[in-house]
Amino acid sequence: ALFRPVSMVVPDLALICEIMLMAEGFQMSKILSRKFVILYKLCEDLLSKSRHYDWKLRAIKTTLYVAGGMKRAAPELSEDKVLLRALRDFNLGKLTSDDTSIFMGLLNDLFPKTLELVPRAIDRVFEGKIREAAIELGYQPDEMFLLKISQLRELFVVRWSVFLLGPAGCGKTAIWRTLMKAQLALGEKTIYRPVNPKAVTRNELYGNLHPATREWKEGLMSVTFRDMSNNKINKHQWIVLDGDIDAEWIESMNTVMDDNKMLTLASNERIPLTASMRLLLEINHMIHCSPATVSRGGVIYVNAEDVGWKPVVDSWIEKLEVRHVSGPGGMPL
Fold first, then answer.
1. 152 vs 288, which has greater pLDDT?
2. pTM, 2 dp
3. Are 92 and 103 in contact (CB under 8 A)?
4. What residues does the Dynein heavy chain hydrolytic ATP-binding dynein motor region domain cover (predicted)?
5. Is the CA virtual torsion 98, 101, 102, 103 positive or negative?
6. What is the mean pLDDT of residues 80-104?
């Protein structure tokens, strides 16, 4: 390496983990960091090679921030229980159904006889609002459906770009619509702007400079970003990107999705992503994503069987019953 013009170094994950745990207030940082790194290494080796998995440094840092927040929120819990809760609650949302049992087995081996003693941290008031919102929108308040909504809210706290991933018809849109309604019911003003990045050209999406006149023409993302960035009223502002990911448009979002939080336009204008703004990418696969893109966002994976067909049928039957009771033309029978 001494005779080469460029040297590459792999980060020492165990040391980084130990220092970050200590900074978050963990006194058993040496032992816990070892367990943490072993778990992520085993996950990388033993779990399926899904394209949306990321067990590298960015994922480790985010989980450590979550663990620090949980430690301050529940000071009565021992440090290993806090870390176990962070590892379980933060990672379960992105796992496929086949990998969940393997992951829970690994957690059980690293934290023996502790898993059952640490329940999930639940916000009772908000869970009630989610249930009410689901019923109002005509959805079934199924336990797994409600869990995915809670996981999405928790992920929005620590990540500003989130991939809502899953096959068509698995309930992705229903999840974020229910979350939005629940937040509005709680008094947290939430707005969203849907954009289909594949329906327009790259210049129409980000804006472009005219080659002859050097005149700037606005794009969908530049206008949406500027409007939301200047808005100081709404507590939550979501840009919902509903369309397949490809390298042509997603690579330009890398500066938004990483720690810079800036949309850099061709006109040299830099629009910041404010604290209330979030990117929600609703997609059914990440085949064309580079590892750089995968590591920059949090993932909620919705398996086809998580919600399943039964809630859809139940909602359909409920609508039929309402129509049948009211009779033709809306006249009561």
1. 152
2. 0.87
3. yes
4. 1-173
5. positive
6. 90
